[in-house]
Amino acid sequence: MIVFEGVGKRFGGRSVIDGLDLRIEDGEFFVLVGPSGSGKSTLLRMVNRLVTPDSGRILVDGDDVASVDVEQLRRGIGYAIQSVGLFPHRTVGENIATVPRLLGWSKRDIDARVDELLALLRLDDPGIADRYPRTLSGGQQQRVGVARALAARPRIVLMDEPFGALDPLTRESLQSALRTIQRDTATTILFVTHDMDEAFGLGDRVGLMLDGHLVQVGTPLELIRQPADERVREFVGGSRARLRELAIRPVRERMRNEIASGGAAVDIDASLQDALGAMLAQGRDRLRVEEKGRVVGSIALADLVERRG
Amino acid sequence: MRAILPLCILVALLLVLPHAGPWFHAWMPTLSHPLYARTSFHALTFAHLGLVFAATLVATVLGLSLGIVATRPFGRSLLPTVRAVAVIGQTFPPVAVLAIAVPLLGFGAAPTFLALVLYGVLPVLGQTVAGLDAVPPAALHAADGMGYGRWRRLLEVELPLAAGPIMAGIRLSAIVSIGTATIGSAVGATTLGSPIVEGLVGNNPAYVIQGSLLVGALALSVDGLLGAFERYVRRL
Amino acid sequence: MTTDVRKAPFLPVAVLCCLGFAAVWLPFLHVAPNRLLSGVARSPHEIVLAVAWLAVAGLAWFIRSRTLAIACVSAMVVALPWLAGHDAGRLLDGAAPTSRVQTGAGFWTMWLAAGLLLLDRLRGLSLRWRAATWAAIALAVLSLAMGGAFGDIAIVREYRAQRGVFIDAFWTHVALSGTTLLLALAIGLPLGAWAWRAKRAGGVLLGVFSFLQTVPSLALFALLIGPFAWLARAWPALGALGFGGTGAAPAVFALVLYALLPVLRYTVTGLDAAPADARDAARGLGMSRWHVLARIQVPLGLPVLLSGLRIVAVQTVGLAAVASLIGAGGLGRFVFLGIGQGATDMVLLGTLAIIALAFAMDLLFQGLHALAEVRA
């Protein structure tokens, strides 16, 4: 659990964060989203004390971070950044083992954990653990970066635009891997991005930051449907915001039990956006819905539109 | 590779030169003493090497510590002054440093040692600062975020990443020291420069050739060995 | 001078003032009965100097005005040599006419510390103010010298005694260095351009020269005596031109060999200063290869080459001093002859002149470099 209480920060006379309160629950995937310069990275770095707040305090599991030994605090919190920051003189395996080694784990435990993480993040080229970072692609480097952040099984992980520099395909695959790992391990993740789609795709809750203020905190649906003000509406996408909603809602919610005939099928856990895409591609207004390869229902173009009374 | 050939030549010279008197006599029959005999070539080589090794060691310790202090947060404000000293120091010719050391310490190995140390600090210092400054900021940021302490970050992240440039500085320092130690024989240090200086003063080209060949082979050997070590350190 | 730069960090002041303060207990002056004997240490103004250093540190800490600090330290840079000259005069009062007063380690350390302190306090000010401050100091020291304030210091006496020889040696040194630089440029520039174009062969060439650079200067100078003597015997015409075994010819030859490596290296780096993309684009716009060189590569590469020449010039001035050991003359002769005779003043005179010459070369090429940067 991370709690911000009246946190403020000024840089050279300019207020970057102004009296901010926020509570992030255990096991929650919380995304801070906002344009660059909105103070979201500064807020994230206050949690592991890379930045010290001028006012207010930050509690991690009930303890004020300012009262905890800074090195112990940081070793207990995972940290991944956009520029990755792998150590070029250490192999992939050694990079991943960084924090466990700082914590004094036994060699056997470390080796086992490295193997586990390599598999988890699908770093499965043979011998990759003994290669040096510069021999990896950008996507692989960031996979190592994420593995390094998760290595000591931290209960909290801070991620500062970790996928910002990756191509769309690599980004999507890393996002889904991260989401799965987060659900399986119930890790609390505080994630910073300026990409709305990424925020809505990943976050249990999303906090929109503008000019050092949290203008709205809520689930992705709440931000889309009940924007707090005009600025939020604009940032979320105006009249196109509903397209984003298609991307975060599963087929399961809108499917009907009638079984349609012919045409391609769509998985029940796919998004409504995927279903719309398949309809457009095939030039038909109805698809079969499958669950684990078995046809369980259908979805029609009209089902995508939610009628209001 | 570049170390092996000069090293073989050096060993061959050390084995052959002590017995080469008759050859030099045949070559320059007018010389009454065709072979330098005041001190054995082995002793000269070891004295030269010992002087250079000790001076480079001290220079490395000094340059490395100064460079580290000047790149820590508390010492940052010293960096411009340290840079200025290094730049101004580089314009002092080695001969000048040697000459200034003589009035302070008299004749012999002591002023040579002082000059070697003073002059040898500069390249190590410069390269240490340059190397530490060139460590990727993202790696430092990540190290901080993961809970490295200051010393641990220095030892495990910064110094290994700066090892290449630092090694280049040490190598340069050693090579300049070998050259300056040669001239040091002009102020009374016993080095491989002694046969050269005595040969020049006493008009004995045989001495000059013997000293020059040995010190040339020694310099190239040391440069080759340190160069190989530098490439090993930089392999990443 | 504005005072918005008040918050200059204090640590350099603390370190340099400690250095200066400690140097108070090193001998400020040495009094020797004649130019060959070593002297007795004398420090007539220990307390004044100690208080002065504490005052400078205190002013910097308590008042924190950079303007005041600069004024104080500038005064110190001028006052130290004046004090040395003044004390020398007093110490020589009634002493034997052969007596000499030499400046000691204390003086030199304090002067260095004061100079570095001034350099530190001037940092961050505009070039105009920095240049003006140094010029004012130079002017003050020069007018003191003209007024005879240093006339009793040993180096100045040595200079007066050996004036003719010294000036000859100075110009010989300048000629050796200048000839070397011109020859190295004449050979190095075309060779460097070729090495830049033929990458592989260029690499080999650079390798050969860096091999040569490693050989100690004295050894290379000495080894050249034989071949040059043989040349002079084989072709007496060459011998008449000064190609003896010893002397200027082998010295310049060796100096050029040493200078070629940096000239080559910086020519190659300079030609690389224009990015390949920019060269491609220029060719694509229809510029000829010669145009690309003249209008893009030279303007962009000249600052690089000049910063390299600065290193070459400083290195050459220093190595030319070694050349005196094979009879090439120059200021090195003062150094080595002085060492041989045990005449410290002579050694110091030669050494200071060599350092001053190296410094002048450094400043000259820094200035040229700054000019080229502005144009590029």
Characterise this structure:
The complex is a heterotrimer of chains A (309), B (236) and C (376). With 309 residues, chain A is α/β, with parallel strands linked by helices. Chain A is built from 13 helices and 13 strands. Chain A has helices spanning 40-47, 70-75, 92-96, 98-102, 107-120, 138-150, 168-185, 196-202, 220-225, 230-236, 241-248, 272-282, 301-304, and strands at residues 2-11, 14-24, 29-33, 55-60, 63-64, 77-81, 156-160, 188-193, 205-210, 213-218, 265-267, 286-291, 294-300. A six-stranded mixed beta sheet of chain A has the order 6-7-8-3-9-10, with helices on both faces. In chain A, strands 2-1-4-5 form a four-stranded antiparallel beta sheet, covered by helices on one side. In chain A, strands 11-12-13 form a three-stranded mixed beta sheet. Chain A is globular and about 65 Å long. Chain B is mainly α and 236 residues long. Chain B has one domain (4-19, 38-235): Orthogonal Bundle (MetI-like fold), CATH 1.10.3720. Helices cover 78% and strands 0% of the residues of chain B. Chain B has ten helices and no strands. Chain C has 376 residues and is mainly α. Chain C contains 15 helices and three strands. Chain C has a three-stranded antiparallel beta sheet. In chain C, helix 7 (163-197) runs antiparallel to helix 8 (199-214), helix 7 (163-197) packs across helix 14 (331-341) and helix 13 (289-323) runs antiparallel to helix 15 (344-375). Chain C is flat and about 75 Å long. The chains are: A alpha/beta (309), B mainly alpha (236), C mainly alpha (376). Chains B and C meet through helix 4, helix 5, helix 8, helix 9 and helix 10 of B and helix 1, helix 4, helix 9, helix 13 and helix 14 of C.
